[in-house]
Design brief:
By secondary structure, the protein is mostly helical. Helix content is 63%, strand content 5%.
Length: 375
């Protein structure tokens, strides 16, 4: 009980002390003027300060030359602020005055000078357009070779670069399809400045390349250089390409050119070598077609009269060119490959009929040729 009363009276005493302190703090201040607190400025203007607050001063205590302060209009003030205000460019960079204008002009000039970069779509369209133009050039040249076996002279080389090794030619020809570079390569081979070994290795790589444009350039090179080796490469291409594909159709057209009498020498070399079998078989078939076309006979005017058909003047002139194939074909009829042996027999029979040569004479001539080889 006593302890509780003690605590209560202590709390009451503390509250009383706090209330007394608040009352004393809010008592009014003494407002009497103290002479020593009076301050005098250089111009005898009196200011009385008491507790940090100035007293009222009569207006006539301030000198007249100081009382009239200069006035500035609101319009002049706004003009001044506008003239000296900071400016921002379109890039949020702050510039002031003439310096900001100069930098802005430079930025505008740079924008004009900067070229617009093509989009990915525009780049792809340009690439496809250039590729289409290159394909047209290659197709046009290839069609000319198929039709005539030759091309109009190529433009002169821009630089006289020397390529001596296989690696050099691979870099220049197989990086990307280039018609002009391929034509120069063919010309160097024809002028004996590129060896046959390098030429046919490069051409083989071209026709084996998965890019259609590169295959076409390989066919172009083969069409411009008819020979036994070119025929054998074309035969390999025909073997692997579909007959109805673009490359397959062009290959067959180039092979058909070997039925011309001017290409009989190449066919004979293929037949005499006898390998590869596919190329030899193809050569016998083309020889058969060539003989039918170039050894045509003129029918007798009246078949009942007993007159025999006569050779045309052209056929008579071509006869010696085909006679030398008789013994070659007879040898091929003994080939271990049955398909080749059968085709050689059919072509031999066709030639005998067109040349009006009996099988006995052919066999005798074959023996004579064999004897000459032995001697």
């Amino acid at each position: 009980m006593f302890e509780d009363n003690w605590k209560t009276w202590t709390l009451i005493a503390l509250l009383a002390c706090g209330g007394a302190f608040e009352v004393i703090k809010n008592l009014p201040l003494n407002r009497q003027t103290v002479s020593r607190d009076t301050l005098t400025d250089a111009d005898s203007g009196l200011y009385s300060v008491r507790a940090g607050q100035p007293t009222k001063v009569a207006a006539n205590s301030i000198p007249s030359d100081r009382a009239a302060a200069p006035t500035i209009s609101k319009a002049d003030l706004q003009a001044f602020i506008a003239a000296h205000a900071t400016k921002k460019t379109e890039f949020e960079h702050k510039n002031k005055g003439a310096e900001g204008k100069a930098k802005k002009k430079k930025t505008a000039k740079k924008k004009k000078a900067k070229k617009k970069k093509p989009t990915s779509i525009e780049t792809d369209v340009a690439f496809q357009s250039e590729r289409f133009k290159r394909d047209l050039d290659t197709d046009s040249a290839l069609n000319e070779v198929v039709a005539t076996g030759a091309l109009t002279p190529a433009p002169a080389q821009p630089k006289k670069e020397v390529f001596n090794t296989l690696e050099d030619w691979i870099k220049i020809l197989l990086t990307q399809p280039e018609l002009l570079a391929t034509r120069h390569f063919v010309e160097k081979y024809q002028n004996a400045k590129v060896s046959a070994e390098i030429f046919y290795k490069i051409v083989a790589l071209m026709v084996e390349d998965p890019r259609i444009e590169m295959k076409k350039l390989g066919l172009l090179a083969l069409g411009l250089t008819p020979s036994m080796l070119s025929f054998q490469v074309l035969a390999e291409v025909q073997k692997v390409e579909r007959a109805d594909s673009e490359v397959g159709v062009t290959t067959n057209e180039l092979l058909t050119r070997y039925t011309d009498v001017n290409q009989l020498r190449s066919l004979e070399q293929v037949l005499r070598q006898g390998t590869p079998v596919h190329a030899t078989l193809l050569a016998t078939q083309l020889l058969d077609q060539s003989a039918k076309r170039n050894l045509s006979v003129t029918p007798a005017a009246d078949s009942s009269s007993g007159e025999v058909a006569a050779h045309s003047p052209t056929a008579s002139a071509n006869a010696p060119l085909y006679e030398r194939f008789l013994t070659v074909l007879l040898d091929l009829t003994r080939s271990e490959d049955s398909t080749l042996a059968n085709q050689a027999g059919l072509t031999l029979s066709q030639l005998q009929n067109l040349l009006q040569k009996s099988p006995t004479k052919v066999a005798q001539q074959s023996e004579i040729d064999g004897q000459i080889k032995l001697d």
